[in-house]
Amino acid sequence: MKLHDIDDRVHVLDTQTDVWSVIREITGSGLQEDAFYVCDIGDIVRKHKIWTSYMPRVKPHYAVKCNDSLTVLEVLAALGTGFDCASKTEINKVLSLGIEPERIIFANPAKPASHIRHAFATGVDLMTFDNEVELHKVKEIFPEARMVIRIRCDATVAQCPLGMKFGCNPHTEAPHLLNVARSLGINVVGVSFHVGSGCKDPPVFRKAIFTARQIFDYAATLGYNFNLLDLGGGYPGDHGTSIEKIAETINLALDDFFPDPMINVIAEPGRFYVSSAYTLACSVHSIRAVNVEDPVTGHNTVNYMYYINDGVYGSFNCILYDHQKIIAQPLKKTTGNKFYCSSIWGPTCDALDQVIDQILLPEMKLGDWLVFENMGAYTLPVASPFNGFPIPKVHVIADENIWMLLKDIFPLSESHFVIGNTPANLRLGLDINSTDTWSLPALPITIPVCGNGGIIEEHVLEFVGPIE
User: Fold this and answer.
1) Residue 293: CB partners within 8 Å, gap ≥ 6?
2) CATH number listed for the domain at residues 283-381
3) How many whole angstroms separate alpha carbon 149 and alpha carbon 105?
4) For 238, which of 93, 374, 379, 402 could close a Cys bridge (C-beta 3.0–4.6 Å)?
5) For the chain, which residues make up each domain, given as ranges?
6) pLDDT band at 441 (very low <50, low <70, confident <90, very high)
7) pLDDT at 467 over 90
8) Torsion of CA 361, 363, 369, 371, to 10 degrees
9) pLDDT for residue 386
């Protein structure tokens, strides 16, 4: 296993330190000017516990495209998840961790031939399709592949609808495709769907699962014996959201339509795992005050334009590509009650680079910081250094309980962590020889569950079991 660079290691903090206090330490150093992230891997661990508690039958296969951070992948690998990969590069990234190819689904229904060849070479034999051409490609390149037919079933409300691009009509196209697959001798093993990323329509999962049942039954008339149901993605992950209603819908539908425990049920959550784990801090580097006439009173008022050091060509590409609703919070607490109509702009010379069109903020000063939560999904993988502005650095943190839980579970090890609660660790990434001494928690440790206030009591070895 490749040793991480010092700056990429997980900084272990005491349980009294949280994301916001870390941001205050970094910005208060006087050494930080660029935008930066703080990633709390404890948030990812808690999300995994929520998933396994709410949907114990559904094996998560993390959608790598959502956030392909090596640390994120290592943590999820240690927790025992599978992975949804969309390209040979993503496959390589997961396999490089020592993960077995059996834990990967190549969930891209339209794959370049070279990527199919790569899947064959690396032993990743589970992949999706939604068209006849794909079947012929697979027959020629990788005839032993286990194929999963992807059907279309769109949510009425979703952050990113996907049905326009992927998924065959389950009633008109799916039977034809299964007949073609049968004639080619292709091994189709199950059904997948994706209701849309960031789904806000829980009942659609029941409709999709029922439709999948119909496809299972039709496939049986052709001699197939499907054993895999892939529920796709669509699970919200921001602070304040919950998958409880979706989980209730899924669990009941599985009981009704797929009671056979031999059916392997998986899903492809992405934003659920990482959205709330990442918090972005940006500094105000320029300010423009604009006098505007109030249409009601006729008096002039001041609107403020704040220019920050990250924008839509960087982390906030999620506004354009992921339809994300951005909320800015001043790092400094204000005692006054006077707020001004304001807008927030990115650092580039493009007028498109606007982060927030209208927001009420207290009057900000040069060098003040704005904090943006829920920035872990579909941000950094798409960010670019346009105009020469750097992509924000990520500081990864965990409290000592999470460290105790993960430090010896493959592919993680002690070398992934920096012990010590000193701000210098986070500001500069240089001081790893901390002399701090702690009284380590006794096992079993407790991890608070976000969302319901409960407590999980787990021994480290009882959490995921051995991974060979």
Assistant:
1) 299, 300, 301
2) 2.40.37.10
3) 13
4) 374
5) 41-269, 283-381
6) very low
7) no
8) -10
9) 84
Q: How far apart are CA 390 and CA 377, in angstroms?
A: 19
Q: What is the pLDDT of residue 14?
A: 84
The predicted pLDDT at position 140 comes to 97
3-state secondary structure the chain: CCCCCHHHCEEEECCCCCHHHHHHHHHCCCCCCCCEEEEEHHHHHHHHHHHHHHCCCEEEEEEHHHCCCHHHHHHHHHHCCEEEECCHHHHHHHHCCCCCHHHEEECCCCCCHHHHHHHHHHCCCEEEECCHHHHHHHHHHCCCCEEEEEECCCCCCEEECCCCCCCECCCCCHHHHHHHHHHHCCEEEEEEECCCEEECCCHHHHHHHHHHHHHHHHHHHCCCCCCEEECCCCCCCCCCCCCHHHHHHHHHHHHHHCCCCCCEEEECCCHHHHHHHEEEEEEEEEEEEEEEECCCCCCEEEEEEEEECCCCCCCCHHHHHCCCCCCCEECCCCCCCCCEEEEEECCCCCCCCEEEEEEEECCCCCCCEEEECCCCCCCHHHCCCHHHCCCCEEEEEEEHHHHHHHCCCCCCCHHHEEECCCHHHHHHCCCCCCCCCCCCCCCCEEEECCCCCCEEEECHHHHHCCCC
Looking at 153, 160, 282, 349, which residue is catalytic? 349
With tokens 């702009």, the residue in question is 345
Cα separation, 458 vs 465, in Å, equals: 11
Structural class in CATH, domain 41-269: alpha beta
349 labelled catalytic? yes
154-168 mean pLDDT: 63
Confidence grade of residue 267 (pLDDT, cut at 50, 70, 90) = very high
Residue with tokens 């690998």: 77
